[in-house]
């Protein structure tokens, strides 16, 4: 009995101690920082918006004229959707006539005020002054950006309202005027997409019959429902510069249905777009194209849109997801090149897997990789079946398929330029498989196009072009063309134009490059350039009085993205892909170097003339 | 009054003076008393004398009166009248329960004693033949027998009288006082415990379940009556 | 005053009739006074409605010590935890804020300096550009300021936001507010801070709540502002807003921690209290249970004692107490048993020779005719005195049985009418001799009570015989009644009555109204005492009332069932035809004090004129609280009462009208039963 009890008594403390130890261990686990376990994904928290916003203020009571003007200009930089606050600074008459959406003038430093004539200033009920500044660019009614130069002067006239005794602006320049940084803060660039007009079935890349999407950048106000603005802009058709070369799948007159206010994707990222009656009778294919246009356009915007649902009235026209959109239409930036090509020390074409970190280049199959012909530069067709090489002396152009054992064949083009530098440029393939090349022969400068990389070269007309074309790059969409042109004064600038083909049956096609416009008004000497996106190029050039630098430029000449690739000296050639994920590759003093995103330039190997297909 | 009625009376008392006095009185009334002073010898004397009635003092040397009473009752239904100095509940009830038919508290008057004795002996007069039924019992008054389903039930004369009194007027509720008067012959109301005890005794003999009496039914607050036939 | 016996019916009904009237009047008055007739009853109903479901809880609260202690502990610990929480949270909050404020201030100061520097630079640049000073000013400020805000705010991603506001209210210089990070500037900057910043060049700070233009929830923040000049030299207000999100998170962490800890602490305290109280309460409850069983007579009950702590000591002491109690009780029981045995033996030993003597005397008495006259008379005397001796002995033994507590009640339902009939029949011969007629009233209905018929009959025989003997040949009325939980029999005579003070003494042993009076009647002087004991044995009352020359009334009240306590009697003690009553109708009441004696007296009642005063309403049997007078309690009255009575009588001697107030004799006779004292005095039966 006693023994039992004693045993029981001993057992109880033992158990209690065991429990206490277990508890202590558990607690100790809680009480120290964990050093293992709990694997899970991290949700990225969106960074806080540090954008500065300007809040428009209505005019104060009895404000002097100078303040009225200041307030008006401030209101122009605000997010006020329809400039309602800005209108409050205007007289009734001016309020009716003022059209802010007509244009946006971007000044280098913001508008300054130049007091008007002395006589007016002393008038008790009227006041004049002039807005001054240096123009940088203008955005037209189509929201298309165009670089501009020169002095900006616009008269402003104020009167004192007879009844209220308040100063109001009577005469005001149409449109909106603001400083460059305000513009960058308030506007954003959006690529609208249309389809290349000339595209003929069966030609080149379009073997699948896919239309080719062409980017058409416009500027929309960042904070005033950019999505809806972009859609409206898309519906209203391509900008003037691009217009003749592209088509839109939206029937003419298509617009958002009346009453449709703001477009917002639902929680499954699906955007429902209600169109007016014009779109009601489109076929499913056309509708898919319409949806693809929309999807491509809205791709870069937030909130993201993964699916577009088109409606007209009560009818549901079609619905397209992003995945399917790739099957409906092709987009340059959506194509992924397999290899990076360049010319190695033995003057033959070698290649590296694109995007990889490999440094050992293999010769391409076929004649060009065999070293049969010594090459200076190379271009590979976008399907990577054919390659064109320019001989070491720049006088000969060879085209050979990238197939093992294929013979080199005859040269397809010869230049009679007196010096090596005045012969053939690096060729460029377009999306249809046509080969473009420049013959710099001073005596007979030409821009040539070889259909399918063979046959008789077609001389491309370039009406209105002053100076000699030095280099050419055709965009993946086959519509835009970038030319480096050397003016008489020796300045080398980058011009962007559109390709127009008039195919007359039986005859050789007439190809013209029109709408050429400088994309780099600031650069004095453009050394190299390459397409780097649907509407973007990477340009190596030198500013007036500056040093060589690398930068991106939009086809419309704006430079929306402030960040430029890391600096590199002695760049002779540069290659970029429309697929922005692939690294920038350049031929510099160090040989072939590349810039994988987020790092510094790395040397790859020795060689020259690096190109991506195109 | 009924001097012709003779009876042998056995006096069981240890007090010789009282016994002698009782003898004088009883003889004076025409009874034939015999005496025994010791409880141990009482049973033997009873057997020898075969009395018609026993006068029994409760306080006896040797066997006490209760014991003697029980022994006698076990052998015979002869009327037993207890002499007791204690009218206390317990003594009387114990005496009655042990089989005494009646009791008389000392001191008593000779006439009272004689009246009780007579009352106990009176029933030896021949009754008229009579057949009564109470519950499932059949009573033959003349034959002094009670039967249930032909089975005879042994009752003391007093119990028999009690049963007959109830059975004769089955419609009537008898108060204890009435029963005392009719069965015991009391002129004045006396101790109703007599009735209670004897009804209990009677029930223990004639009822199938004494807890749920069917023959002698209690009428609360009044008395007893015969159960339905 | 909740007397309920039917006896009170007359008076009671009057009172009842009056009461509702009074209540109604009160309602009316209240309603009129408060202007809202409905208000108070509705409120009361509401209160009742609210309270009803709470009643069990309240009862539990009152009865359950454990609940009380646990709840109290919980409340107190909750209070302490809350207080502690407030203090700690307050300190943590202050600490967090201090650190934040210091960091913010240095950040903001740097920002203000930077803004000033940029303004200076811009102004210098403008000056260098050589543009006329009065043209230049407004040129760059719009963009400059946006750029400034951008650059300042981008310095601390999300750590703070920057806001500029025009100086001097919203209209200053046509400048619009600027804000980074989607902050709504005018809603976020308190007006008081703006005024302060406007009025002085020093930096100022304030707490505020940042309101966002987007859907983001607003949050508390510290805002530091200063008036700064733009390149033109125009002042504007520059504010740094530091959201206190982190601090709030830290604080809510602390709060959560404290709340959790506090919860645990409270629960712990509650559990501790529960355990401790349980350890204490369990033995206490056990002790209570054991005590209850002890008081119910199970003297062998003991507490279970384990250990040696205080509770165990309590248990031991308790058990010791119980043991001593049991010992004493068993000793007393032994004593009582011995006494009873002794009495029994004595009675037997006395009776046996007495029986012999008795019989011998009877024999001699029977034969007295044969004796000479002297011897014959002697025989007669012998027989008579033997009778008396016998009854005296019987009574003495009976009384001694009561005193020994040996009397046992054999109660069963009986009809008192039967008993009364027998008693009256038994008393008929005596009444005839006295020329008295005995009338019985109230015997139309059965009057059934659980009682010992033998004892009741003895009581009633005593009363009736007494009444006949003292009735001086006038009628004796026996009245029966039953109401409520009681039955009563009153015996009324119209004889000499009782003198003041005598009503209390009639029940004393061997007491005689007039000592000088010849003992013509053969009473032993113990009859009423025994009757009183019998009544008390039933839990009933036996009371006497009388007035000198007006006769007397004795009333026996018995509970209808044996265990039920009596609260009133169906028959008023003072009969309706008392002289006092009769005169009361006309006469004004004299001072109450003097009348008292009449209350219980039998032969000589209190002065009749006294009564009316008290009794405009017929006497109400009172619902006398039993506790009023210890002597009135059942069971002890018999022994206690006679003693106080005799001194009282002595005192009364000179002034019969003024019996000792302590016994209530001094109260007006009219309402004997309204006064617990007088009742206790009068009704020994209680």
UniProtKB/TrEMBL annotation, chain B:
Species the sequence originates in: Streptomyces griseoflavus Tu4000
Residue span(s) of domain Response regulatory: 8-121
GO cellular component: cytosol; protein-DNA complex
PANTHER family in alphabetical order: DNA-BINDING DUAL MASTER TRANSCRIPTIONAL REGULATOR RPAA (PTHR48111:SF21), REGULATOR OF RPOS (PTHR48111)
Matching PROSITE patterns: OMPR_PHOB (PS51755), RESPONSE_REGULATORY (PS50110)
Entry-linked InterPro entries: CheY-like_superfamily, MtrA_REC, MtrAB_MtrA, OmpR/PhoB-type_DNA-bd, Sig_transdc_resp-reg_C-effctor, Sig_transdc_resp-reg_receiver, WalR-like, WH-like_DNA-bd_sf
Superkingdom per UniProt: Bacteria
Keyword Repressor part of the UniProt annotation: no
Keyword Membrane: no
GO molecular function: phosphorelay response regulator activity; transcription cis-regulatory region binding
Chain ranges of the OmpR/PhoB-type domain: 129-228
Protein name, per record: DNA-binding response regulator MtrA
PTM-bearing positions, type 4-aspartylphosphate: 57
Record keywords, A-Z: DNA-binding, Phosphoprotein, Transcription, Transcription regulation, Two-component regulatory system
């Amino acid at each position: 009995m006693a023994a039992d009890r004693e045993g029981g008594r001993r057992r109880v403390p033992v158990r209690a101690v065991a429990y206490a130890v277990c508890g202590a261990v558990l607690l100790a686990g809680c009480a120290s920082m964990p050093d293992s376990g709990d694997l899970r994904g991290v949700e990225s928290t969106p960074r806080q918006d540090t954008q500065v916003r300007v809040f428009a203020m209505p005019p104060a009571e009895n404000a002097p004229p100078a303040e009225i003007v200041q307030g008006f200009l401030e209101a122009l930089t605000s997010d006020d959707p329809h400039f309602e606050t800005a209108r409050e600074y205007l007289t009734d008459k001016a309020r009716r006539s003022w059209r802010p959406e007509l244009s946006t003038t971007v000044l280098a430093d913001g508008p300054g005020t130049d007091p008007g004539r002395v006589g007016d200033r002393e008038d008790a009920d009227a006041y004049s002054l002039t807005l001054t500044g240096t123009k940088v660019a203008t955005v037209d009614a189509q929201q298309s950006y165009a670089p501009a130069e020169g002095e900006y002067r616009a008269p402003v006239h104020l009167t004192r309202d007879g009844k209220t005794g308040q100063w109001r602006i009577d005469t005001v320049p149409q449109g909106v005027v603001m400083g460059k940084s305000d513009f960058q803060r308030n506007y954003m660039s959006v690529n609208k997409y249309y389809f290349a007009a000339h595209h003929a079935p069966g030609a080149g890349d379009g073997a699948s019959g896919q239309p080719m999407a062409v980017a058409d950048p416009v500027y929309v106000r960042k904070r005033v429902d950019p999505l809806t603005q972009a859609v409206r802009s898309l519906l209203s058709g391509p900008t003037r510069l691009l217009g003749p070369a592209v088509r839109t799948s939206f029937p003419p007159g298509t617009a958002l249905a009346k009453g449709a206010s703001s477009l917002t994707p639902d929680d499954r990222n699906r955007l429902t777009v209600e169109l007016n009656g014009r779109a009601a009778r489109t076929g499913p294919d056309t509708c898919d194209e319409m949806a693809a246009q929309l999807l491509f356009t809205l791709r870069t915007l937030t909130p993201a849109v993964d699916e577009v649902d088109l409606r007209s009235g009560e009818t549901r026209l079609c619905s397209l997801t992003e995945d399917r959109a790739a099957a409906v239409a092709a987009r340059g930036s959506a194509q992924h090149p397999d290899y990076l090509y360049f010319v190695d020390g033995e003057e033959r074409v070698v290649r590296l897997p694109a995007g990889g970190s490999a440094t050992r280049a293999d010769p391409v199959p076929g004649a060009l990789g065999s070293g049969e012909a010594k090459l200076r530069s190379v271009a590979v067709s976008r399907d990577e079946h054919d390659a064109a090489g320019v001989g070491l002396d720049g006088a000969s152009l060879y085209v050979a398929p990238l197939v093992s054992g294929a013979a080199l064949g005859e040269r397809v083009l010869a230049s009679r330029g007196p010096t090596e530098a005045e012969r053939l440029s690096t060729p460029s393939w377009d999306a249809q498989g046509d080969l473009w090349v420049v013959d710099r022969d001073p005596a007979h400068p030409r821009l040539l196009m070889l259909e399918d990389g063979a046959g008789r070269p077609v001389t491309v007309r370039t009406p209105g072009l002053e100076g000699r074309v030095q280099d050419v790059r055709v965009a993946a969409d086959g519509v835009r063309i970038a030319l480096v042109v050397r003016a008489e004064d020796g300045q080398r600038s980058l011009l962007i134009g559109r390709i127009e083909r008039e195919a007359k049956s039986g005859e050789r096609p007439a190809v013209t490059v029109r709408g050429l416009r400088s994309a780099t008004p600031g650069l004095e000497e453009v050394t190299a350039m390459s397409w780097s996106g649907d509407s973007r190029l990477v340009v190596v050039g030198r500013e007036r009085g500056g040093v060589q630098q690398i930068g991106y430029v939009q086809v419309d000449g704006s430079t929306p993205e402030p960040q430029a690739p890391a600096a590199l000296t002695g760049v002779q050639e540069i290659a970029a892909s429309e697929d922005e994920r692939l690294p920038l590759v350049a031929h510099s003093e160090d040989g072939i170097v590349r810039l994988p995103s987020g790092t510094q330039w790395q040397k790859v190997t020795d060689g020259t003339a690096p190109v991506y297909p195109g | 009054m009924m001097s012709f009625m003779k009876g042998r009376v056995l006096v069981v008392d240890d007090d010789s003076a009282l016994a002698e006095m009782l003898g004088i009185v009883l003889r004076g009334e025409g009874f034939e008393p015999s005496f025994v002073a010791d409880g141990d010898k009482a049973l033997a004397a009873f057997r020898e004398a075969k009395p018609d009635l026993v006068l029994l003092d409760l306080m006896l040397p040797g066997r006490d009166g209760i014991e003697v009473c029980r022994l006698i009752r076990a052998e015979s239904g002869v009327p037993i009248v207890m002499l007791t100095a204690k009218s206390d509940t317990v003594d009387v009830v114990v005496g009655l329960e042990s089989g005494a038919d009646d009791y008389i508290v000392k001191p008593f008057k000779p006439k009272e004693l004689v009246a009780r004795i007579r009352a106990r002996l009176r029933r030896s007069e021949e009754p008229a033949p009579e057949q009564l039924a109470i519950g499932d019992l059949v009573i033959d008054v003349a034959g002094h027998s009670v039967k249930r389903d032909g089975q005879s039930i042994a009752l003391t004369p007093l119990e028999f009288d009690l049963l007959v009194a109830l059975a004769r007027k089955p419609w009537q509720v008898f108060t204890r006082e009435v029963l005392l008067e009719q069965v015991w012959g009391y002129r004045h109301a006396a101790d109703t415990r007599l009735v209670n005890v004897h009804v209990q005794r009677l029930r223990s003999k004639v009822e199938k379940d004494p807890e749920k009496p069917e023959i002698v039914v209690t009428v609360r607050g009044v008395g007893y009556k015969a159960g339905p036939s | 005053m909740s007397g309920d016996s039917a006896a009170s019916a007359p008076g009671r009904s009057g009172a009842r009739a009056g009461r509702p009237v009074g209540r109604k009047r009160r309602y009316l008055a209240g309603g009129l006074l408060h202007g809202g007739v409905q208000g108070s009853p509705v409120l009361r109903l509401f209160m009742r409605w609210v309270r009803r479901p709470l009643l069990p809880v309240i009862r539990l609260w009152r009865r359950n010590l454990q609940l009380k202690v646990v709840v109290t502990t919980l409340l107190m610990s909750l209070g302490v935890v809350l207080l502690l929480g407030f203090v700690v949270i307050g300190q943590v909050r202050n600490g967090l804020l201090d650190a934040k404020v210091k960091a913010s201030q240095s950040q903001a100061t740097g920002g203000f300096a930077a803004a000033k520097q940029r303004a200076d630079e811009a102004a210098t640049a403008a000056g260098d550009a050589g543009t006329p000073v009065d043209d230049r000013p407004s040129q760059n400020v719009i963009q400059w300021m946006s750029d400034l805000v951008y650059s300042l705010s981008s310095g601390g991603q999300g750590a703070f936001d920057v806001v500029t506001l025009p100086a001097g209210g919203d209209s200053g210089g046509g400048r619009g507010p600027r804000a980074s990070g989607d902050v709504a500037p005018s809603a976020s900057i308190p007006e008081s801070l703006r005024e302060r910043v406007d009025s002085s060049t020093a930096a100022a700070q304030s707490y505020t709540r940042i309101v966002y233009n987007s859907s983001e929830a607003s949050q508390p923040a510290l805002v530091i502002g200063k008036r700064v000049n733009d390149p033109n030299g125009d002042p504007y207000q520059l504010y740094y807003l530091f959201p206190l999100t982190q601090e709030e998170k830290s604080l809510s962490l602390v709060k959560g921690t404290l709340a959790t800890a506090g919860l645990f602490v409270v629960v712990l305290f509650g559990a501790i209290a529960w355990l401790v109280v349980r350890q204490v309460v369990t033995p206490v409850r056990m002790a209570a249970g054991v005590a209850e069983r002890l008081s119910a007579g199970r003297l062998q009950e003991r507490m279970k004692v384990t250990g040696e702590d205080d509770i165990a000591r309590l248990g031991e002491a308790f058990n010791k107490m119980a043991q001593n109690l049991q010992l004493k009780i068993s000793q007393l029981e032994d004593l009582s048993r011995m006494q009873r045995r002794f009495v029994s033996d004595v009675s037997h030993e006395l009776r046996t020779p007495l029986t012999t003597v008795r019989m011998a005397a009877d024999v001699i008495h029977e034969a007295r005719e044969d004796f000479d006259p002297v011897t014959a008379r002697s025989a007669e005397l012998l027989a008579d005195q033997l009778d008396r001796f016998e009854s005296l002995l019987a009574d003495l033994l009976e009384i001694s049985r009561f005193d020994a507590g040996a009397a046992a009640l054999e109660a069963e339902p009986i009809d008192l009418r039967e008993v009364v009939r027998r008693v009256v029949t038994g008393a008929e011969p005596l009444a005839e001799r006295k020329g008295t007629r005995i009338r019985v009233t109230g015997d139309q209905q059965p009057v059934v009570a659980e009682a010992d018929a033998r004892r009741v009959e003895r009581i009633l025989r005593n009363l009736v015989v007494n009444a006949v003997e003292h009735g001086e040949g006038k009628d004796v009325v026996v009245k029966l009644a039953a109401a409520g939980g009681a039955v009563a029999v009153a015996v009324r005579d119209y004889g000499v009555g009782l003198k003041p003070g005598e009503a209390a003494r009639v029940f004393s042993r061997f007491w005689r109204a007039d000592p000088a009076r010849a003992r013509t009647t053969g009473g032993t002087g113990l009859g009423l005492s025994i009757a009183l004991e019998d009544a008390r044995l039933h839990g009933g009352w036996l009371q006497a009332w009388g007035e000198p020359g007006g006769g007397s009334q004795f009333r026996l009240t018995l509970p209808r069932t044996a265990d039920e306590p009596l609260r009133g009697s169906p028959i008023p003690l003072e009969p309706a035809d008392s002289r006092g009553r009769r005169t009361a109708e006309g006469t004004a009441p004299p001072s109450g004090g003097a009348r008292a004696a009449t209350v219980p007296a039998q032969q000589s009642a209190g002065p009749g004129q006294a009564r009316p005063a008290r009794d405009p309403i017929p006497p109400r049997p009172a619902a006398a609280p039993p506790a009023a007078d210890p002597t009135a309690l059942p069971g002890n009255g018999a022994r206690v009462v006679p003693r106080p009575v005799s001194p009282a009588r002595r005192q009364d001697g000179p002034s019969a009208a003024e019996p000792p107030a302590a016994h209530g004799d001094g109260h007006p006779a009219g309402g004997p039963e309204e006064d617990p004292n007088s009742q206790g005095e009068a009704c020994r039966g209680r």
